[in-house]
Write a structure and sequence with these properties.
single chain; 279 residues; alpha/beta
């Protein structure tokens, strides 16, 4: 279906060599080539087409037996979340979602929002949460705004001149980009003084005065990061937080998971966490 050993391995949650080894064993057992080596990419040979057709019938009968006897047919949802949300409440949401869909397993991928949306467009992911500065070309199923703010500590020292010390994730992300863009537009220089893939480490670095960091306001409050309301730094634009579903996906659980994850926007926050006029 995926026409790629790499994509098949990712979908199954195994390594590419494991998929290759399984195909070799299957071909050895059947005594024929299932793939057409003369064609570019991964294409089935005529015998391979016949084997796949019969195999689908076997799987269909298997599922019917399980369903008719109350058995469980497991399926896998491939979910992408931004690296800076990997330690958030999303795993907890997925666990609760599984109470309604007990036959659903998850393969969770984290990375930059741009890479996740690219993988979604290529069919490598089913549901993606992405945080971006502008709305991407892929239409979101749900979208809401998050206020980006500067956080610091009493130990932070940022002078009117000289580079602004930035604490940020070790890979490109929306918060890092809006911080850099705002500083450049204001004519300020900057330097990355502390980078990490862990929000816990980043919060600790900010707390001891390594530098300043840009983060959505709600997340800053939940991690006890001090918002720098009157920072001598340029203002920041709001961020788009969206939930995206793979085009052509017909499995009901995909859409329901997207709707369920969108509830993250309504996570309870104390009233003093929100500026006037924001939801």
């Amino acid at each position: 279906d995926l026409r790629s050993f790499t994509k098949a391995a990712k979908s199954l949650g195994v390594t590419q060599p494991a998929v290759s080894a399984q195909i070799k064993r299957l071909q050895s057992m059947l005594g024929c080539e299932l793939l057409d080596k003369r064609s570019p990419g991964v294409s089935l040979s005529p015998r391979g087409e016949a084997v796949v057709s019969q195999a689908r019938k076997l799987l269909s009968v298997n599922d019917e037996i399980l369903q008719s006897t109350g058995g469980r047919v497991s399926k896998t949802l491939r979910v992408g979340i931004p690296s800076d949300y990997a330690g958030s409440k999303i795993p907890e949401k997925l666990a609760r979602f599984r109470l309604r869909w007990p036959a659903v397993n998850f393969i969770v991928t984290s990375g930059s929002s741009e890479h996740l949306l690219r993988d979604l467009g290529q069919g490598d992911l089913d549901v993606v949460m992405a945080v971006t500065e502008t709305l991407p070309a892929i239409s979101p199923r749900h979208v809401w705004m998050r206020e980006a703010i500067w956080v610091h500590s009493p130990a932070t020292r940022v002078g009117p001149e000289g580079p602004v010390p930035l604490v940020c994730y070790g890979e490109d992300c929306a918060c890092q980009r809006v911080a850099v863009a705002a500083l450049r537009q204001a004519g300020r220089t900057y330097e990355f003084v502390f980078t990490s893939h862990s929000l816990v480490s980043l919060a600790a670095a900010v707390a001891v005065g390594f530098g300043v960091m840009v983060i959505p306001r709600g997340r800053a409050m939940r991690h006890d990061l001090a918002v720098w309301e009157d920072a001598p730094l340029p203002s920041l634009p709001d961020l788009y937080c969206g939930i995206y579903v793979r085009e052509g996906g017909t499995w009901e659980a995909m859409a329901e998971l997207a709707d369920y994850l969108s509830e993250l926007r309504f996570e309870p926050i104390s009233p003093d966490e929100l500026p006037t006029g924001r939801a």
